[in-house]
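Protocol step 4 of 5: obtain the predicted structure for the target chain.
Materials: sequence only (see below). No template structures provided, no constraints applied. The aim of this step is simply to have a reference model before the mutagenesis design in step 5. Sequence pasted as it appears in the construct record:
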Amino acid sequence: MSIAPEVERFLSEEGVKYEVIKHPTAYTAAEEAAVAHISGYDWAKTVIFFTPEEEPIMAVLPASYHVNPDLLEDLVGAGELRLAEESQFSVLFPNCEPGAMPPLGNLYGQRVFVDLRLAEDEEIVFNAGDHQEAVRLRYSDFERMVDPVLGAFGEP
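Step 4 output (structure tokens):
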């Protein structure tokens, strides 16, 4: 597999310059960052939660961080969040391998919440549909395309 067709089309339609980074197969964001020789602070991982109303949302944070659910719940303002199960990913993210979904919530009808740590960097790197390729682009382009809610919910 490679970069998901809808991701490639979306980036092209937005006129965004991006680089595809090929790397050995890895299945966690921290492993992917390591095999791609990119800092875990710079690699964005996407974690999916459901609100009490069953709305899927994306929490995007550095690969080396984990989500503090209480802080994310405060930011989302929708009550107690439930972590999505991997078995739900195929319905939410067609054409993506489980766990390799890109943080482009507008492609999938999902709100995106980004940890402030990622917004400090000039670039963002993330999965684009599989576990062998990632996309690197300017954070400012990502922010313009996705219009995420920024907040502090990740912890090292």
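Step 4 remarks: Residues 5-13 form the longest helix (9 residues). The chain has one domain: 5-155.
Proceed to step 5.
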